[in-house]
From TrEMBL:
Gene3D superfamilies, alphabetized: Zinc/RING finger domain, C3HC4 (zinc finger) (3.30.40.10)
Gene Ontology MF term list: zinc ion binding
Keywords: Metal-binding, Zinc, Zinc-finger
SUPFAM superfamilies for this protein: FYVE/PHD zinc finger, RING/U-box
InterPro entries in the cross-refs: Zinc_finger_PHD-type_CS, Znf_FYVE_PHD, Znf_PHD, Znf_PHD-finger, Znf_RING, Znf_RING/FYVE/PHD
Residue span, PHD-type domain: 105-154
Residues covered by the RING-type domain: 29-71
PROSITE patterns listed in its UniProt record: ZF_PHD_1, ZF_PHD_2, ZF_RING_2
A Pfam family: PHD
UniProt protein name: PHD and RING finger domain-containing protein 1
Domain of life the protein comes from: Eukaryota
Amino acid sequence: MPKRLRKNTGPRLNIPKVCDNNGNLLNRCLICLESIEKHSALGILNCGHNQFCFSCLYEWSKVSNKCPLCNLKFNEIGNSKTSEVALVENSDKLIEDLYEEYISSIFCIRCGSDQQDEFLLICDGCDQGFHTFCIGINRIPDLEEWFCHDCILEKSTEVRKNQWREMEKAADQIEEEKARKRLKKLVDM
């Protein structure tokens, strides 16, 4: 029998069932998979989902304030035992703040400046920054991913060729602009 068709007799993970054989939800938290009776209260969301421990849902809200099941935003969590409501901060704002803090910590490897971040390319391999004008191009290359000189060497030939072509296009614009400025100077004389 081919190896891929053999039944795996190795160690099995002991993951508790969430549904019975008929597809009905068991009384388990869908975050921690523990029996909900073990916990003090259910967490209830405005979307109507309540298959979570209150404590699990509260911890979840520190990372994301979207329902784990339907992805709808929530700003409060109801407690089934006390009927109290816990207000939740918008975690998207926290993520934006962390992103801004991260971006502001990146500087250009060539010139050492963290200014003009609208011209700063960040390598998708090593997260180092490079101003477009410090590496001889006039614009951000039209690429899904951009790699610095060191990281591009680890990529496939196709990726290297695509990036090289796009970098040449971005560099050609500099030469075109220089030629236009020279012509304008001649015309203005």
